[in-house]
């Protein structure tokens, strides 16, 4: 016997519940926010976030998994082309539920469930990049063989070379640069001649006329869209 789902059932039976949740998810992806009962919002939240996780993968198998639940192709296209790129920097918490009081008539508790599409703050993005760089450095240090040879007394030329290397390491980006890309500057501005923003985790690039260009924090820059595509990146919002 299958394990019962926690919480009250929505609708008269399992099939009816699936149809209700499918319609609620379709409306949520079309309008970004909907008003419904608190019980339905709580049941919709894990389903909607799971579908967004599939959409962030962006492949054909993920699209078919989403289409098995949401039958509206327009809502699915908007989920993959517009909503998923906004969630690229997030690792969860794609929805927000806000209680708004009781409904007149039956006094049912009501709530608003909405998509959290605001970009992450620069501080949070910087902290995540720093944590990723620390983990990579620890992994590289553990893999590197220990050198048992005694260190020689450094000369003036060696000290100058070491100072130059340390300066270069301090200015090095937190992510591995793709071919043809330039590192992001400390103040967030683009290097001269570079206008296309790149993102390592989502493998997407953003052009100046793109919808999410101003909200995106560049991890590195490309001179053109052709350079970004040559490095294996895909334009944000492009059709699959």
UniProtKB/TrEMBL annotation:
Gene3D superfamilies assigned to the protein according to its UniProt record, in alphabetical order: Ribosomal protein L17
Pfam families: Ribosomal_L17
InterPro entries registered for this protein in UniProt: Ribosomal_bL17 (IPR000456), Ribosomal_bL17_CS (IPR047859), Ribosomal_bL17_sf (IPR036373)
Statement: the UniProt record of this protein carries the keyword Glycosyltransferase: no
Superkingdom to which the source organism belongs: Bacteria
Positions with biased composition (Low complexity): 140-158, 165-176
GO molecular function, one term: structural constituent of ribosome
Region (Disordered): 138-207
UniProt keyword annotations, A-Z: Ribonucleoprotein, Ribosomal protein
GO biological process: translation
GO cellular-component term (any): cytosolic large ribosomal subunit
Keyword field contains Ribosomal protein: yes
Assembly: Part of the 50S ribosomal subunit. Contacts protein L32.
Record-stated family: Belongs to the bacterial ribosomal protein bL17 family.
Name of the protein: Large ribosomal subunit protein bL17
